[in-house]
Amino acid sequence: MFSRDSWSEILEALSSNWFRTVLTAFGVLWGIFILVILLAAGNGLENGIKQAFTGMATNSMFMWAQNVSQPYKGLPKGRRYNFKLDDVQAIKEEVPGLRFVSPRNQLGGFRGSNNVVRGLQSGAFNVYGDYPEITQQQPMEITSGRFVNYSDIKEKRKVAIIGSGVQNILYDPGEEVIGSYIKINGVNFMVIGTYKKIGQSGGDAEENQKEIYVPFTAFSQAFNMADIVGWMAITAKDGFSITELKSQVFDVIKTRHSIAPTDDRAVGNFDLFQEYNKINGLFTALNFVAFFVGILVLISGVIGISNIMLIVVKERTKEIGVRRALGATPWSIRSQILLESIFLTIVSGMAGIILATGVLALVNYELGQMDTSDMMFLNPSVNIGVVFIALVILIVSGLLAGLIPAQNAIKVKPVEALRTD
């Protein structure tokens, strides 16, 4: 079956009409090329999206107070309430499985009036009152100085950490930042650190660097917030799902603020874990579509090979008759046709894989010359498992493509074949 004569015969048969062979092989080449490129593009998009979550505690949600939508215990519909610091402690005590419950307050400066001044420079920035844990919930690289610590919280120090975007607007290039003062809504804060957000892809990537962080207690004191909490960032422990725990968190808030248990509008939330899982599901669907489309294109190429092999068998009817008359077994005839089909399929398929690999190498080289920190597409590639699957598909496709022509070949009767002109 794998003798030198057999392979010589295969090469001679395929090269006798080389233009037809090349056109036939192109269908399989294009099919496997499309399959690999689609899967690599899906991985590139997935890598780019997941880069946005780098360092972020994805098992988190953000929660804020909204207007009550149902009357309850004599209290009217539509009333407004606020989270309080006591709520934070109650949630920690009553809901097991939570890792962080971080209260936050915020002064909105995005696209608003100037709320931060330094000398003659001013700007509109988001200012957050936070606890130290927030850096473990949202990705942030401290580029100089430090972040808020519990000594700052306890002593209500008026210190601030500013983003690179704030620094570019309020400071001259090369100017010392640490130890300088900025005025937030008329209150002086000393800058103790600078940061750069990481993994924040999308249209707001630049705005994410234009934020200021101060201790939660200093924020509350400076801007007369008392014990009010604007919103909370809540992260579950490993092994727990914030999506499953959030109903318990809502129940604590509803009980403490006399909200109807059935009022689902009173507590606003953004479930990052749920959204992250949706994204993972989307990429699973994209990979399925890539396989589906790629295999359909590949099947069209395989059908082309099967048709050509039928023509080849028809052209070699007399040769097959002579071989049968000389004692060739049906299996030897069948195996010869199948080998030709598999050989043509694998060679053309491997050419498609090599071509796709070259295209991906070129794309990755170009991406390597660019700043991809804010891109939604990163490192398009396929793993060795996909290549192995592609090879299996090629072998099976070659067998299927040659099966019908091989069966037709062994049905040729020697006497009738020898009469064929």
From TrEMBL:
<keyword id="KW-1003">Cell membrane</keyword>
<feature type="domain" description="ABC3 transporter permease C-terminal">
    <location>
        <begin position="292"/>
        <end position="414"/>
    </location>
</feature>
<keyword id="KW-1133">Transmembrane helix</keyword>
<feature type="transmembrane region" description="Helical">
    <location>
        <begin position="342"/>
        <end position="363"/>
    </location>
</feature>
<dbReference type="Pfam" id="PF02687">
    <property type="entry name" value="FtsX"/>
</dbReference>
<dbReference type="Pfam" id="PF12704">
    <property type="entry name" value="MacB_PCD"/>
</dbReference>
<comment type="similarity">
    <text>Belongs to the ABC-4 integral membrane protein family.</text>
</comment>
<dbReference type="GO" id="GO:0022857">
    <property type="term" value="F:transmembrane transporter activity"/>
</dbReference>
<dbReference type="InterPro" id="IPR025857">
    <property type="entry name" value="MacB_PCD"/>
</dbReference>
<feature type="transmembrane region" description="Helical">
    <location>
        <begin position="383"/>
        <end position="404"/>
    </location>
</feature>
<feature type="transmembrane region" description="Helical">
    <location>
        <begin position="21"/>
        <end position="41"/>
    </location>
</feature>
<protein>
    <submittedName>
        <fullName>ABC transporter permease</fullName>
    </submittedName>
</protein>
<keyword id="KW-0472">Membrane</keyword>
<dbReference type="GO" id="GO:0005886">
    <property type="term" value="C:plasma membrane"/>
</dbReference>
<keyword id="KW-0812">Transmembrane</keyword>
<dbReference type="InterPro" id="IPR050250">
    <property type="entry name" value="Macrolide_Exporter_MacB"/>
</dbReference>
<feature type="domain" description="MacB-like periplasmic core">
    <location>
        <begin position="21"/>
        <end position="249"/>
    </location>
</feature>
<dbReference type="InterPro" id="IPR003838">
    <property type="entry name" value="ABC3_permease_C"/>
</dbReference>
<feature type="transmembrane region" description="Helical">
    <location>
        <begin position="288"/>
        <end position="313"/>
    </location>
</feature>
